């Protein structure tokens, strides 16, 4: 038993029950899991809140401190090097215990709380050789290299281009190489690239991917500028070469703002290349004004990214309009002796053969949407969906069934709370799982991912973390428990398990999508299967 468990156990079951999440209690009651002792409750709290909660949760920390004897409290004050003007417990509780502060670290040391190393063991140095193959840190596969070369030639003569690559073929990585090439070869002292996406999550992914790629591909300093979500509170100032990531909503807000429209005008004068994610939406009215300013005809260059180069699956006129918008310039994967790139990617081991399955939740949610004018779910809507107990029981049933079949499972939850909830129940029911979210400390996240790769974890549940830049060779099941209208986001979630052996994946994989017919969103999984037919 760890020291954290011992400290919590001493507080007693009645006290610990106050710190158990209400949604977790409700879900456990449906599963007839009740009457936990203090040791079990301590484990639940540590699994749900994390191993450092006893320091970071003020109420838990206070109770732990107040459980000290008077002699222990005085000795702890001396260890913290604080003077005692009143009772020692009150003096200790007044200290600042934020993560990595001096008091935080001393608290860990005094209570002998287990500390996870911040870095993993490095590989042993290899003997030097006369001839050594050097592996790049941000490599491309041959089909991606061909796409980059073809796209570069077109953009040298034309202003517009769509990069069409199927899910799992590496659109984002290919695009980042084109962007890096654009920055490196620009003749302007201060060059600007704008990346447009429609959601906060996709914007954040683009920013992280550029930061990662430029460290290996760059040749000069570039400012990474985020202008989406809470970042929009601050002025958009472009003073040096910059990679600007904007949400469509934030771009519209600047254009319509009497006080701040000058910020967008300044950006439009500086931008040399605009990249639009989910480029099949480029001719939608919502994008029209933004793109006409950032990449006017005959002005700056425009690069579109898509896994499906059509505006819709059935409307040919819309597809033709999209093609004309991009001057009918499209780079796809063209492979000799193969009718379509999917067959090539599978035959070469870049993509796995996949089984797709829909799991329907026929119940009703407390809110509804306007299907005609709906972009994607808000954080609040996703959070509410994640609290649906009946839906969660369906999800748990699917995860547990795949776990019993020895699947290596990645779960995409609706929210941070939802991820914690599913993880806690699975662990209580005896499954080996972990939860990774944005606020998970980097050292702990590193440990969980390493454990998952090394078969020490069977189930990895996440929210907004593992959609890109994550490689787990043995992962072969994706449970998509969060609804989305974004083909790109859905593709990225699916892409975590459809990678073949040559791309660090498996020969076969399974994709389980939880569908809510109330919202009418069967289309995404159907569209994913339909993409194969487009290229046949």
Please give the largest β-sheet.
7 strands, parallel
Average pLDDT taken over every residue:
85
What is the CATH fold-level name of the largest domain? Rossmann fold
Tell me the Rg in angstroms.
Answer: 26 Å
Helix content: 40-55%
Distance between the termini: 58 Å
In spatial order, strands of the major sheet run: 3-4-2-5-6-1-7
The best one-word shape is globular
Low-confidence segments, given as residue ranges, are: 122-126, 311-315, 521-536
Q: Report the strand count.
A: 13
Count of runs of 4 or more consecutive helical residues: 23
How many domains, in number, for the residues? 3
Can you name the CATH architecture of the largest domain? Answer: 3-Layer(aba) Sandwich
CATH class of the largest domain: Alpha Beta
* CATH superfamily membership of the largest domain: P-loop containing nucleotide triphosphate hydrolases
From the helix content, strand content and strand pairing, which structural class follows?
alpha/beta
What amount of the residues lies in strands?
A: 5-15%
Protein architecture, described:
- By secondary structure, this protein is of the alpha/beta class.
- The protein has three domains: 108 residues, no CATH class; 193 residues, P-loop containing nucleotide triphosphate hydrolases (Rossmann fold, 3-Layer(aba) Sandwich), CATH 3.40.50; 186 residues, Rossmann fold, CATH 3.40.50.300.
- A seven-stranded parallel β-sheet has the order 3-4-2-5-6-1-7.
- Strand 5, helix 15 and strand 6 form a beta-alpha-beta unit.
- The C terminus is likely disordered.
- It is 44% helix and 13% strand.
């Amino acid at each position: 038993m760890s020291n954290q468990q011992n400290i919590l156990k001493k507080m007693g079951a009645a006290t610990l029950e106050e710190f158990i999440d209400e949604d977790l209690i409700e879900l456990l009651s449906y599963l007839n899991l009740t009457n936990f002792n203090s040791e079990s409750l301590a484990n639940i709290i540590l699994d749900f809140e994390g191993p450092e909660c006893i320091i970071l949760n003020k109420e838990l920390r206070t109770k732990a401190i107040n459980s000290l004897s008077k002699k222990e409290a005085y000795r702890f004050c001396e260890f913290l090097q604080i003077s005692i003007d009143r009772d020692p417990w009150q003096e200790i509780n007044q200290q600042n215990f934020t993560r990595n502060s001096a008091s935080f670290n001393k608290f860990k040391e005094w209570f002998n709380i287990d500390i996870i190393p911040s870095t993993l063991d490095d590989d042993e140095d290899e003997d030097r050789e006369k001839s050594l193959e050097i592996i790049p840190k941000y490599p491309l596969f041959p089909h991606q290299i061909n796409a980059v070369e073809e796209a570069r030639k077109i953009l040298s003569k034309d202003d517009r281009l769509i990069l069409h690559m199927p899910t799992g073929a590496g659109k984002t990585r290919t695009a980042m190489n084109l962007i890096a090439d654009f920055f490196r070869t620009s003749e302007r002292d201060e060059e600007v690239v704008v990346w447009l996406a429609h959601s906060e999550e996709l914007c954040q992914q683009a920013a992280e991917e550029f930061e990662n790629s430029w460290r290996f591909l760059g040749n000069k300093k570039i400012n990474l500028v985020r202008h989406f979500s809470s970042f929009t509170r601050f002025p958009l100032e472009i003073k040096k070469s910059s990679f600007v990531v904007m949400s469509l909503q934030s771009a519209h807000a600047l254009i319509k703002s009497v006080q701040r429209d000058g910020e967008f005008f300044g950006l439009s004068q500086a931008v040399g290349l605009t990249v639009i994610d989910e480029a099949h939406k480029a001719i939608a009215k919502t994008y029209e004004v933004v793109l006409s300013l950032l990449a006017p005809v005959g002005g700056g260059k425009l690069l579109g990214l898509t896994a499906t180069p059509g505006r819709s699956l059935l409307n040919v006129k819309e597809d033709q309009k999209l093609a004309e918008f991009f001057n009918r310039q499209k780079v796809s994967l063209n492979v000799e002796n193969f009718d379509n790139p999917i067959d090539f990617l599978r035959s070469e081991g870049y993509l796995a053969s996949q089984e797709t399955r829909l799991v329907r939740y026929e119940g009703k949610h407390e809110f509804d949407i306007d299907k005609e004018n709906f972009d994607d779910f808000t954080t609040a809507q996703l959070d509410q969906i994640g609290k649906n107990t009946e839906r969660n029981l369906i999800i748990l049933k699917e995860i547990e069934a795949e776990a019993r079949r020895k699947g290596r499972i990645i779960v995409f939850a609706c929210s941070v709370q939802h991820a914690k909830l599913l993880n806690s129940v699975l662990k209580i029911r005896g499954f080996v799982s972990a939860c990774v979210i944005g606020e998970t400390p980097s050292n702990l996240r590193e440990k969980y991912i390493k454990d998952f790769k090394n078969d020490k974890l069977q189930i990895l549940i996440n929210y907004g973390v593992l959609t890109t830049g994550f490689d787990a060779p043995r992962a072969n099941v994706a449970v998509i428990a969060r609804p989305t209208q974004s083909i790109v986001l859905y593709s990225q979630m699916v892409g975590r398990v459809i990678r073949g052996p040559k791309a660090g994946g498996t020969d076969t994989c399974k994709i389980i999508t939880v569908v809510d017919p109330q919202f009418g969103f069967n289309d995404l999984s159907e569209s994913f299967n339909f993409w194969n037919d487009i290229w046949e």
